[in-house]
Design brief:
Elements lengths: L2 E5 L8 H10 L4 E7 L11 H10 L4 E6 L7 H7 L3 E5 L6 H10 L3 E6 L5 H8 L4 E5 L14 H15 L4 E5 L4 H10 L3 E4 L11 H12 L5
Parallel strand pairs: 1-2, 1-8, 2-3, 3-4, 4-5, 5-6, 6-7, 7-8
Helix pairs in contact: 1-8, 2-3, 5-6
Length: 223
């Protein structure tokens, strides 16, 4: 089975805890929490309290994806929330490498996210400094967007570079992932599919639907 991260940005917040528990029970590999500050990409979402609360419910590792400016200024409050993984955006800080090192020193896996407009050469510069990279297929901050098709070439190039250089960095894909695009991305070399609306469909959150959706995405590589 391939790996899947459940992105809660598309969740009905009234059922957030129940939804995450259902995804865990279905065997999801990660819980992905987008922290959007209202400035970096024009939306607001979750904060450290959400990270802390869901960390207590989740058996799967919890990732805090900081889609915000100057994330280095807010690391301490997110460290206290207890995530297993913290992701920063490549264009959100003047001191990206220093911020990644600060995350690692806390024993937390450090990731770096790249918007779809970031070039392969820019990505290569950062890869060895991160435990994983998050390649965004859409503009950040909003769920339910259609995928930018340029992502396929980018995933193949990053996969080739990682394998050729012998780097252990994992490749996460975020945005517009459905069954069709997910299967194609796995063929291109993605390690983890971050799935939001494909798992948490609609406002009427039904446990059985979430479980079935997670299991369907986790079996894409088998089909």
């Amino acid at each position: 089975m391939n790996k899947v991260a459940a992105s809660i940005l598309s969740c009905n917040n009234a059922y957030l805890g129940d939804s995450v528990v259902a995804a865990n029970d279905a065997g999801v590999d990660f819980v992905h929490i987008d922290v959007v500050d209202g400035a970096y990409c024009g939306n607001f979402s979750f904060g450290p309290k959400t990270v802390s609360d869901l960390k207590r419910l989740s058996k799967a590792p919890v990732e805090a994806h900081l889609e915000m400016y100057d994330p280095q200024c807010y690391l301490d409050i997110f460290f206290e929330a207890g995530p297993d993984m913290v992701t920063i955006q490549s264009d959100s800080s003047a001191c990206v490498l220093r911020t990644l090192e600060a995350i690692k020193r806390k024993g937390i896996n450090a990731g770096i996210g790249f918007n779809s407009s970031v070039t392969i050469d820019q990505i290569k510069y950062y890869i060895a400094h991160a435990d994983y990279v998050v390649l965004l297929c859409v503009e950040p901050g909003f769920g339910g967007q259609a995928m930018n098709p340029c992502i396929y070439e980018k995933v193949r190039a990053v996969r080739d570079f990682v394998d050729r250089e012998g780097i252990a960095t994992q490749i996460f894909i975020d945005g517009g992932v459905n069954e069709e695009t997910g299967a194609a991305l796995l063929e291109c070399g993605a390690d983890v599919l971050i799935v939001g609306s494909g798992i948490f469909t609609g406002d009427d959150i039904l446990r059985d639907d979430i479980v079935a959706n997670v299991r369907r995405f986790k079996s894409l590589a088998d089909g």
